[in-house]
Amino acid sequence: MIKYVAGIDAGTTGSTVMIFDLEGNLIGTGYREYSCKYPHPGWVEQSMYDLWKGICETSKEVLAKTGINPKEIGSVGFSAQRGTFVPIDKDWNCLSDAIVWSDGRAGKEVKWIEENIGKDRYHEVSGVPLSGLWAYPKYKWVRDNRPDLYEKTWKFVNGQEWLLHNFGSTELFTDPASLTLNGMMDIKNLDWSNELLKAINIDRDKLPPVKTPMTQVGVVSKKASLETGFEEGMPICCGGGDQQCAAIGAGVIREGLSEITIGTAAVMVAHVDVRRPDVDHSVLFGGHAIPHKWDMEGLTFGAGVCLRWWRDTFAQHEKEAAKQLDIEVYDLITLEASKAPVGCKGYIFLPFVSSQVTPYYHDNARGGSMGLTLANDRGMMARAVMEGVVYEIRMIVEAMEKVLGRPFEAIRLSGGGAKSDLWCQIQADVYGRPVEKLKVSDCTTLGAAILGAVGAGVFISIEEAVEKMVHTYGIIEPNMKNHEIYTDMYGIFKDTFLALRDANVYNKLADVTMKHWG
């Protein structure tokens, strides 16, 4: 008898495995952290074998902790990084480490694309503004700089395809919900763009065919069963890109609803029935995890990773105290930050540690801070990191609502940031509107589980699955006095970014970095 479903999120900094009952209650969860590699300034790579090891260890841990019978789990669905790709041979061996979505090596290739395709045509075809952070210019980088690797490659696959193959998938595929950050999709037809592939001389035969998400692609193999603990023969299903899964896990399956995930990055996703005009090229349009539907999206690449940087660089005292008290170090950091005044007495953190994405798409943007005086202390600095992340997200909210033509009916919060009451309140106060919390804040993994359950036939439709498994449980109202302070600070935050961009400071700094340390 089927009592449970499982979801796996193979993220950038770690893998999460969760098991839910059919009412959406979380039965067990596990997490394994792993690292990226930074071989040159701006480059980000990752071993797919590290991801697989993390998933195997976490799966066994969850099954052991819960003590449930693996035979009672009806399906597993996947969420994976988008825009991360790895070259493989015919035996599915990785020919190199994966190039990660946040990798910034393709500046020259972006200029070539702009000159030879044009920003307007590229946006018209792909649904996304031109950026060096999408996979498309990195594919050109591989084609131009590693022709030996290109020739040896049988297929370039996203992370989800490779991991599903390890689980026992019998199909070679990708799906529109995984391809948004690839930047090489024909958005109208939700398929690879022949025009864009031809322009950079990429053979379509080196890419997997595009199929629909929410589909069973095989069953757990004997080998994968031994490595993960899941039952041999259990259905495995493609889910989608991480943020499309998050939208499902937040119940964003109709127009007017949106969700914001603060994880390593921060992402805002909204369901849209049709692609809308975007004269400023400010937001992304991609394939939803619901077959034959679209979503609208905005990104920041520096969110939770900024707080992690703060933890690793400045929070040695908190780490030791958390270890002794057997609590999470982030609880101590946010406790300290909660005592700091709103707006941190004028101290602003700029979270552009991996570029600025929506709505300005400046690949060379850099992080920093301003407003530092002797009145600022550690608590204010920690809080400023949290506030700076949300200031950047507010730029996304404004851009997406401009394209939508009206305010969103609801903004739901998910991801690791939603577990922090302080970060949730900061969001309500910065946006100046209520935000909704969800019973399961890790919407990405829940969404993957839901998509897997529908694909395997545990539920008859996505609507039935969302109704049974997604539950909101609280609304956080904004403090409008705080909103007034934050609006003033946000204006300075935005003006600072634009001033540095327009003065070419970011590009000059990138050039100097490459000159001396590249």
UniProtKB/TrEMBL annotation:
InterPro entries assigned: Carb_kinase_FGGY, FGGY_C, FGGY_Carb_Kinase, FGGY_N
Domain (Carbohydrate kinase FGGY C-terminal) ranges: 285-455
GO molecular function, one term: kinase activity
GO biological process: carbohydrate metabolic process
Keyword Transferase: yes
Record-stated family: Belongs to the FGGY kinase family.
Record-given protein name: Xylulose kinase
